[in-house]
Amino acid sequence: MKTELMKTRRRSDPDETGEKVSFRKAVKDGDFWTRASLVVMGAGYFGRGQHIKGILMTVIEAGFFLFTGCFSLPYIRKLPTLGTVQRKEILDLTTLQKTVNQYDNSLMILLAGVIGLLFLAAFAALYISNMKAVYRLQRQKESGGHINSFREDCRELINGRFYVTLLTLPGLGVLLINIIPILFMICIAFTNYDMDHQPPSFLFTWVGLENFRTLFTTSTTVTFGYVFVRILIWTLVWALTATATTYFGGIMLARFINNRQTRWKKMWRTLFVITIAIPQFVTLLLVGKMFGDYGIVNSICSKIGLTGLLQDLGLVSRGLSYIPFLTKPGWAHVMIILINIWVGVPYQMLIATGILLNIPEDQLESARIDGASEFQIFWRITMPYMLFVTGPSLITSLIANINNFNVIYLLTSDYVTANMNYASSNAKEVDLLVTWLFTLTNDYSNYKMASVIGICVFLICAVLTLISFSRMVAGNREEEFQ
Fold first, then answer.
1. Tens of pLDDT along 358-403?
2. Contact 450/191 with Cβ under 8 angstroms?
3. What is the CATH number of domain 217-291+326-481?
4. In 259-382, which residue ranges form alpha helices assigned H by DSSP?
5. Which of 75, 309, 419, 447 has the smallest C-beta neighbourhood within 10 Å, fewest atoms?
C-alpha cells in the first residue's frame, strides 16, 4: 500500500517526474491563483486550501515592503553618492542656540543600503521560489495528487527535511555576523573613509580603485607598496614557521612522553598542560616583560657576559647595554617564533597524543617484522597518518597564524620602528597584516586602507585553504589507514 502511494505521488509531482519548473513557465501556464501570487504571494496557497501558509507568505511580503519603504529605500537611493548634505551647525541669533540641519550620514547610508540590498535579493529569491511552489501545487491538484496540510508540512520539516530546520538559525547567524560585515568592509575599500572624512561631521564618497592603487604605490610620500610587500612576506614566513614548529614540536613531544622508556609520564603531561590552563595573554605579557630591554633575561645575560660577547660578534650594537630581544628587527622576528613554540607546542602535544595512541598497531608490528627502522616507521606510517587525520586542523592553524593578533601585538607593544618608510604607513617591521590593519583603524582611523588590507588577507587565506585542502585532505584515502 505504501509503495503504491509513493508511486502515485511520483506521478503527480512535476519535480519528481523530471519536468523542470521555471518562473517563466509558472507565469505562462499558471491558473488564476498562481498568477495572483505575482501580486499577493499567499494567493496561490489560499486557492489550494493552505490558508496558514498563505497568511505567512502574505505577512512576509507586507513586512518586506514596509521595511523597504519606511527604512531601507531612502538609503538605497543615496548609495550612488553616499550623501550630499554636509552637517552644519547654525546659530539662531534670536535664541542664541545652535541648531543642526538635516544632514546625510555616509556611514549609515552605506550600512543601511547594504542591508537593504541584501533583503531585496533575499526577497527576490523567495518571490521566485514561491511562484514555483504554487505552480507545483497547481499541477498536483490538476493531476489529483495529494496536497499537504500545514501540519504535514511541519512534520516534514521535522522528519524528511530536518536539515532545512537545523540549518536555518546557523544560516541567519552567518548572514548577520559574517556576510553583512564582510560586504560592508568590501564597500569601505572603495571609499575615502578616513580621519579626514569622519561621519557624521563629514561625508565620504566612492573613489573606485584608488585605494588599491595606493596599496601598491611607493613614492616619497606614499610608502604603502614598500611596506605591504615586506609585511606580506613576514606574515607568510611567520605563519608557515609558527605552524610547522608547533605542529612537529607537538608530535615529537608526544612521542617522547609516550615512549615506553620515559618515566613519570603523568608529571610531564601535567607540566605542559599547565601552560594551556594559563590564559595566553597573561603568558605573553609576562614573557614580553621578561625579554624586555630591562627585563630579567637581559639582567642575567649582562651578568654572565653574554651581552658583551654578542657585541664582540657584531650581533648587538655597542651603543646598547642590553640585547634587543623584542625591540629590533631580526631579533624580534626570531624571538616571536621561539616564544610561540612555548605557547603552542603543548596544545599540539595533546592532539598528537590522542592520535598516536590510535594508530593501528598491526601496521607498526608488520613494519618492524619487515625490518623497518624507527625512523622509517615514523616517516612512512606515523606522519602520513597524522597528516591525514590532522589535515583540517593543520590548515586551520595556518590560517589562524596568519591572523594571530595576540602573539604579535602583546609581545611587540614597546617596539618602535626606525624605518621612516614603515612609519609613514603607520606600520612596524614586526607587524602582520592583521596587526597593521588594527593599527590603521584603531590609532589612525584609516578605514579605507584597512579594508583593502582586509580584502587581501581574505584572499590569501582563501587561496591557501583551497590549495592545502586539495593537497592534504581531499580524496578518498580512508582505506590506506584501516
1. 777 777 778 888 788 878 888 888 888 888 888 788 888 889 999 9
2. no
3. 1.10.3720.10
4. 265-277, 280-290, 296-304, 306-312, 331-356, 361-369, 374-377
5. 309
